[in-house]
Amino acid sequence: MPIELSDLEIVDIDHQKFDCSTFDCADADLNDFLKSDCLNYIAHGLSYTKLALLNGEIIGFVALLADSISLEIAERQWLIKTNVHVTHIPALKIGRLGIGKTRQGQGVGRALMKYSLGVAIRLNLDLRVGCRFLTVDAYPDSVGFYEKLGFVKSRHSRYKKRTQPSMHYDMNKGSRFASAE
Q1: DSSP structure class, residue 156
Q2: pTM for this predicted structure
């Protein structure tokens, strides 16, 4: 049975309250981010990290930050048709996403993506802050996960040569989050 967002407690990271030292998602860069780097990002207002707890155990985390993306003309026809001329579209970025290696493949990543989508929706509806897309610079081996959720690789020339593909999800086109594995 997959883990759903409703099964998780999503909390602000607090190294005094939660022991992050034993968290392992099988990626040294993500582990280091959670254990130390995220505090510097928080201190400088660059991103905020949330922990996913299941029965008090840290099983994942997500770091969120503001973003904007550039779209090729073909990707932004919906704007041009309505006579809106912008070059950067507001977004919420998933800066880091890590799932404990014993919980990978159990729905935790999808649940944290649902949480992130909820934050973006709250930006729009509750706080009245423009936010059209979720974005991520995906690790190459995670591209398939994001594609199952409805993310597409960005086609703009500024993103083409990246080793971690820039991807985006249009919140106005409906959610596949519920059906992705």
Answers
A1: S
A2: 0.90
